[in-house]
Amino acid sequence: MLSKTINKSKKVLALMLALIFIAGTFTISVYALTDAEKQEYEQKIEDIKAQIEENKKKIEELDAEASQYDGTVSSLQEKIDVLQDQIDLYNQEIAIIDEDINKIDTQINSIETEIDNLNEQVKQLDEQVKQLEKEKAKTYELLGERIRASYMSGASTPLEYLLTSDDFEFQAYLERVELLQRIAEHDDKIVKELEKSIEDIAVKLTEIEDVKTRLAAKITELDEAKKEYEAKKQEQVDARQVVQDAEDEIQADLNKVMSIVNGLDAQSQEYQAAIDKREEAILELENKLSEKNVYYGSGSAGDMCWPLPYSDVYVSSRFKFRWGKQHNGIDTCRWSGTEGADVVSVKDGTIEVANWGWGGGYGNYVVVNHGDGVLTYYAHLSNITVSPGQSVKQGQVIGQAGNTGYSFGAHLHFGLMINGSWVDPLKYLDGGSTIQCTDSL
Questions:
Q1: Global pTM?
Q2: At residue 306, does pLDDT exceed 70?
Q3: How far apart are CA 259 and CA 44, in angstroms?
């Protein structure tokens, strides 16, 4: 009985080992999509692509409609440029005339200052005349007082004094007469000098008035010249205004046309934004297709060649957390230039996705299914040379590197997913540990 029990246990153990072996040998599709689910996702993708194509056609129609205005815009702009050149010429002429007017104003101001100085001299001379007239009047007043004093003193004639006085008194009288005569002569001299000074001042005043008259005539002449320049300036201003009005009318027409064109551009941008959102939706659906359709298995991702088959490659950004989220892959470039460089499949596989467009920021990208739960992503391509369902060999060109999608320079974004999870590609790519990493982003 014991031996039978042992034999049964051995059979059960052998059966279990066989089942374990079978399970290890064949891939288990834990999250495999049903055909209905797959068709539903694919139909959604096709519907969205149809909407994208419809939006692209609308954008093309809007661009074509906008391009019809290109000739009108160019023509109006050329007219505006010509009119603006004329306005600039008028402005230059007006500026020259203004300079001439300013020169005349400077001369007038200088002459007016000179006249003000002459008026000040006249004022001072008038004061001197008044002062001399006062001195002259005072001299006459003193002379009159002396005459009255002489009259009040007695005999008024030499004969009368001779007949009525003795020798001594007569002699004194003669001396007094001589003194009075000298004083009179002195007063007369003073009066004449005062009158001469007054006459000299009158001559100066006459000369000043002559100068003022000439200066006033010069100002009148300059005013006439200024009026002529101002008339010329007004002609230029009026002519410029005519051109300015014409330019304003054309500018108004151009603004109307540009309003239409800008409206068309705005509609195009709205359609483009809708396209971008729909491409993001496609990417999300394709990711779901890829992730849900992952067949969990050994996850063997060894023997992968580098996606850029060149000797001068480097990694500009590694698999890490950046910009607030995980960077699910590496960015790789060439020192000699990445744009247009060949991109190859790192391992044998089947093309799952070959997307053209924004791709949710990936731009043009390719997804290769290598089996064993291994998917590789090649993003921002400038060109794609494969199509979905196509089998590819390791090292086969699947496209060219570029700068499409959300990218700030030509590079290849390479992502590696194993059993539904993103992993660091540098741990699996041949030579990944020795590739130079600048890690600038």
A1: 0.46
A2: yes
A3: 37
> 316 — phi, psi (to 5°)?
-90, -20
Element (H, E) at 168: helix 167-292
Q: Give the separation between CA 299 and CA 297, rounded to whole angstroms.
A: 5
Token digits for 340?
């247009």
pLDDT band at 146 (very low <50, low <70, confident <90, very high): low
**Confidence band, pLDDT 50/70/90 cuts, at residue 110:** very high
Q: What percent of the chain has pLDDT over 70?
A: 73
Topology of the domain covering 298-441 = Glucose Permease (Domain IIA) (2.70.70)
Q: Which residues contact 261 (CB under 8 A, 6 or more apart)?
A: 66, 69, 73
Q: What are the sequence ranges of the domains in the chain?
A: 28-293, 298-441
Mean pLDDT score of the chain? 78
- What CA–CA distance (Å, rounded) separates 374 from 372? 6
Residue 86 CA to residue 82 CA, distance in Å, equals 7
Query: What are residue 401's DSSP bridge partners?
Result: 381
Report residue 64 as tokens. 């074509």
User: Among 398, 397, 396, 379, which Cα is nearest to 388's?
Assistant: 398
> Which are the contacts of 414, defined by CB distance < 8 A and separation ≥ 6?
307, 329, 330, 331, 332, 346, 376, 377, 378, 379, 425
State the architecture of 28-293 in CATH terms. Answer: Orthogonal Bundle (1.10)
Q: Is the confidence at residue 15, as pLDDT, over 70?
A: no
Q: Is 43 left (phi over 0), alpha (psi -120 to 50) or beta?
A: alpha
Nearest to 398 by CA among 422, 376, 421, 431: 376
Residue 96, judged by CB atoms within 10 A of its CB (0-12, 13-18, 19+), counts as middle
Which pLDDT score is estimated for 431?
A: 67
Q: Which distant-in-sequence residues (6+ apart) come within 8 Å of 335 by Cβ? A: 312, 313, 314
Q: Are 257 and 381 in contact (CB under 8 A)?
A: no
